[in-house]
Amino acid sequence: MILTGPDIAFEQARGRLTLQPFSGDRVQPNSYDLTLGPTLAYYTGDVLDTRAENPHREIEIPAEGFVLRPDRIYLGSSVEEIGSNHYVPIIRARSGAARLGVFVHVTADLIDIGSVGQCTFQLRAVEPVRVYAGDRLAQVTFWGVQGDIVLYDGKYQGSRGPQPSRIHQDAAAQVTA
Amino acid sequence: MILTGPDIAFEQARGRLTLQPFSGDRVQPNSYDLTLGPTLAYYTGDVLDTRAENPHREIEIPAEGFVLRPDRIYLGSSVEEIGSNHYVPIIRARSGAARLGVFVHVTADLIDIGSVGQCTFQLRAVEPVRVYAGDRLAQVTFWGVQGDIVLYDGKYQGSRGPQPSRIHQDAAAQVTA
Amino acid sequence: MILTGPDIAFEQARGRLTLQPFSGDRVQPNSYDLTLGPTLAYYTGDVLDTRAENPHREIEIPAEGFVLRPDRIYLGSSVEEIGSNHYVPIIRARSGAARLGVFVHVTADLIDIGSVGQCTFQLRAVEPVRVYAGDRLAQVTFWGVQGDIVLYDGKYQGSRGPQPSRIHQDAAAQVTA
Q: At the top level of its lineage, which domain of life is listed (chains A, B, C) (predicted)?
């Protein structure tokens, strides 16, 4: 089951989910709006590789906004810290961002139960789009679970700002295992 | 919980969700098929902007079909009116469309509870793809909720045809608030 | 409700869902990791068409990996056979793949209840990315249902390896109906 807006506010108030900072006017019928933080990251290599470390650069979005290029994957983050030890958060775009052709994730929308931090957005624009820090691009929904809960204790815990991929650590782990 | 196909048909029959027109052969094991309406919209500017109105143009899909260009975001709509005051609709591509590289949304898949209208598709093709009005590109699933329900009463209510982004109204609202 | 990792393992052990081969270290807090099989398929035509058969070619990923081109949709498959007669599987990318700009589906993430087989990935890379057979690119989640269950009995049942789109069979079915 997906939490309604009133239930998101209720569960936030009694500490069963994290939405920090919280503002009542961000509560939607079944979700909570998330805003784009000021920092973006992108990779500098010509060919990325799932089994190598991929160098990246960070930029700050200027006041006049920043134009996302369609041929590049950008990592951003939510201003808000989000998470829950009781529900599974799933992110998605707000309709207005998506109707401009801005993906806020690249099919990785689920946040593990027990993970808390600023959410990394995987931003991809179909056409060039100027975005601004503070844009309400995304929203988070919360979902009830079935079964015993084992909380997340992984490599992205407590994230602040955009976090590049660490998928190459999987291969290294397999080689040394 | 996600409704099964038989439950979608049952809830439609007793008026707890809207699927109009409804046809029993569109019911799938956990979803209902949606067809592409005759009108597409696309933006005419070179750089889109989350804080400006973005001019757009509408076209009718001719009988011989229309080729989606990979560098453009198209807005389409479902023939069907969909919605529910009791369940949350979430849209996705049918497998056959996705296997041709046609996205039917750009990470905005959730329809607010209480919103009723033709669904706006955010269409993006990885390679050029010819599509036709009436293609069964998408499907809608319905999800149970936890908590008190406050129905949607927002800016896209009662949509007919593809609706361009109104995200720039967020910024205007903040400036004047 | 979404199954927790412990419940995925429990339901797998008592035969209520298929994850084959199964390894306990692939269980995540709310999902199970899926690996990329050795075969990719892509279309050879310049313009794809929802109402025509679209010729395709298959390749084997070499040991040194294969670079996904951004202008092409690739079909891959999971090594694992997955499915359930009791829960609805939904796939998504692992975070590490998505943060490199690799989509593992093109908005078709839901697997019909009763469908069992290797899962077809719809792969699309925002930038060129080298991938390898065995990469843990994706994950599957399982969701509880409401209503009577009618099991899937469709055209992709028992899939092995990447399966190209058969959407053109819809149109043929309508013409002859």
A: Bacteria
Distance, CA of C145 to CA of B142 (rounded, Å): 10
Non-local CB neighbours of C76 within 8 Å, separated by 6+ positions: C36, C37, C39, C40, C41, C120, C121, C123, C162
Task: Provide, as residue numbers in chain B, all residues whose Cβ is less than 8 Å from the Cβ of C148.
Answer: 4, 6-7
**Chains with 3 or more CB pairs under 8 A to chain B:** A, C
pTM, rounded to two decimals: 0.96
Alpha-carbon gap: A99 to the closest alpha carbon of chain B (Å)? 5
- Mean pLDDT over B100-117 rounds to 97
d(CA A166, CA A154) in angstroms, rounded, equals 11
For C108-148, give the DSSP string: --B--TT-EEEEEEEEEESS-EEE-TT---EEEEEE-EES-
**Chain A residues near residue C92 by CB distance under 8 angstroms:** 107-110
Predicted confidence (pLDDT) per residue in B87-96, tens digit: 999 999 999 9
Which of B:29-88 have CB within 8 Å of A?
43, 46-51, 54, 71-73, 75, 88
**Chain C interface, best mutation among A85, A110, A142, by max C CB count within 10 A:** A110
Q: How far is B65 from chain C (nearest CA, A)?
A: 9
Reported ipTM:
0.94
Domain with C91, as residue range(s), is 5-176
Chain A residues touching residue C7 (CB < 8 angstroms): 146-148
Six-digit token pair at C149?
A: 């269950």
Closest CA to B130 of B176, B66, B173, B73: B66
> In terms of DSSP bridges, do strands C66-68 and C129-131 run parallel, antiparallel, or are they unpaired?
antiparallel
Q: Using omega within 30 degrees of 0 as the cis cutoff, is the peptide bond preceding C21 cis?
A: yes
- What is the per-residue pLDDT for B23? 97
Q: State the total domains in chain A.
A: 1
Q: Which residues of chain C have a pLDDT value below 70?
A: 171-177
Tens of pLDDT, residues B6-58:
999 999 999 999 999 999 999 999 999 999 999 999 999 999 999 999 999 99
**pLDDT, position C175:** 45
Q: Which pLDDT does position C81 carry in this prediction?
A: 97
CATH number at residue C28: 2.70.40.10
Instruction: Give the nearest partner residue to B170 out of A105, A129, A136, using CB atoms.
Output: A136
Measured between beta carbons, the chain B residues lying within 8 angstroms of C151 are: 29
